[in-house]
Amino acid sequence: MTSATTYPQLTGEYTLDAAHSRIGFVARHAMVTKVRGSFNEFTGTATIDGDAPEKSSVQVTIQAHSIDTRNADRDGHLKSNDFLSMDEYPQITFVSTEVKQTGDTSFDVTGDLTIKDVTRSVTVPFEFEGSAKDPFGNDRIGFEGSTTISRKDYGITWNAALETGGVLVSDKVTLEFEISAIKSA
């Protein structure tokens, strides 16, 4: 892992490497188990200021149609007006508004998350996982983080009551980010 004293070397513009990154989510199903999924198509950029991390920024655009829970029927339902309304709102976006270093290798990234034309501020605690030069000469950095949101906050309210009490789909959804980014030349 890279120590905090080498952050100045990381200063630059980065592009998310979607082939080596994951943007996923976890929601409770039927109150007894978790369903995991991910978005397979997204783009993003980051500006890293190693001397002043608070001047760093990130922007991510996710294609809603790329949702993948390994079940075509469920994916179709999630794309429908009951959930993401993909035809009307084809993208989910995140634009940072603040980056705060909270430890030697930890950062809180706060920003505007927009789902279905509803924008709310969320904070994602990230852990810097390190930097490396890959076999192709690219400078890479890695970050991992997660946060929990209420889907109702974004107008995603569909649910079904269970005979035993409770609901089919949890309101709370954990968003997971495993990010590899490549420094621009």
From TrEMBL:
Positions of the Lipid/polyisoprenoid-binding YceI-like domain: 13-182
SUPFAM superfamilies the record matches: YceI-like
InterPro entries the record matches: Lipid/polyisoprenoid-bd_YceI, TTHA0802/YceI-like_sf
Database matches in Pfam families: YceI (PF04264)
Similarity comment: family membership: Belongs to the UPF0312 family.
Descriptive protein name: Polyisoprenoid-binding protein
